[in-house]
Write a structure and sequence with these properties.
A hairpin with a 2-residue loop joins strand 4 and strand 5. The longest helix has 17 residues. The chain has five helices and eleven strands, in the order βαβαβααββαββββββ. The strands form two sheets. The protein has a six-stranded antiparallel barrel with strand order 6-7-8-11-10-9. It has a five-stranded mixed sheet with strand order 2-1-3-4-5. It has two domains: 109 residues, Response regulator (Rossmann fold); 74 residues. The N and C termini lie far apart (50 Å).
Length: 209
């Protein structure tokens, strides 16, 4: 029997326990051992994922609403890296909101996902004016700004349409220094709760200006 670890985020211990029991029951019926990592807040997620190979994330709607803006901005890119859904507990039933239409369908998505961790590194909120381009010529570059940065990546504001896996180039305002990388997450324009843009995995670790 293979084991998958799912992260459940909810303020109430009672809610976390109900979701844990529902997941373990589903796993038992599918001959799939499910380990549940329970978190009380969204802010605990980054540190957890640096050490825990996870296969999916379940976030309670109420915990999402009550999270600070800082925690939302620091974690929204992580939701693109794993099977992810929001949930609400109605009685003892776990109602799912997302690509999956039920808890069982979400567990099925997680079962096909290879467990992974994220790199342990500091992500800073820093705003650099940059030109963002899908070509190294920068002929059709978008004037943009970084939202946060790290040595191995960044999140850049953009209202254009992107796809995970796209190659991108960044050039800093006022000089010819350019870096390139690959899109690993995309948040389209139109969600008033999240900043539109792309998460970029840089080809080489970068010391920012």
């Amino acid at each position: 029997m293979s084991m998958k670890t799912l992260v459940v985020i909810a303020h109430s211990a009672e809610t976390r326990n109900c979701v844990r029991d529902a997941l373990k029951s589903l796993g038992s019926r599918r001959s799939q051992e499910i380990r549940v990592e329970e978190l009380a807040s969204l802010g605990e997620l980054p540190a957890t994922l640096t050490k825990l190979p996870a296969s999916g994330i379940l976030l309670e709607v109420a915990a999402s609403i009550k999270a600070t803006q800082h925690d939302k901005e620091a974690t929204h890119h992580l939701m693109e890296l794993y099977p992810f859904a929001k949930f609400k507990l109605v009685g003892k039933e776990v109602m799912i909101f997302g690509k999956a239409r039920s808890l069982g369908e979400f567990v099925h998505q997680c079962a096909r996902f290879k467990p992974r961790t994220i790199r342990r590194e500091t992500r800073e909120t820093k705003h650099f004016a940059v030109y963002l381009s899908a070509e190294d010529t920068f002929e059709d570059a978008e004037q943009s700004v970084t939202i946060n940065i790290s040595q191995s990546g960044c999140f850049v504001y953009s209202i254009r349409q992107w796809s995970v896996g796209d190659r991108v180039w960044l050039r800093f305002l006022g000089n010819d220094f350019a870096i390139c990388g690959t899109v690993f997450s995309w948040q389209p324009w139109g969600n008033n709760k999240l900043i539109p843009g792309i998460g970029i995995k840089l080809d080489v670790e970068t010391v920012w200006p």
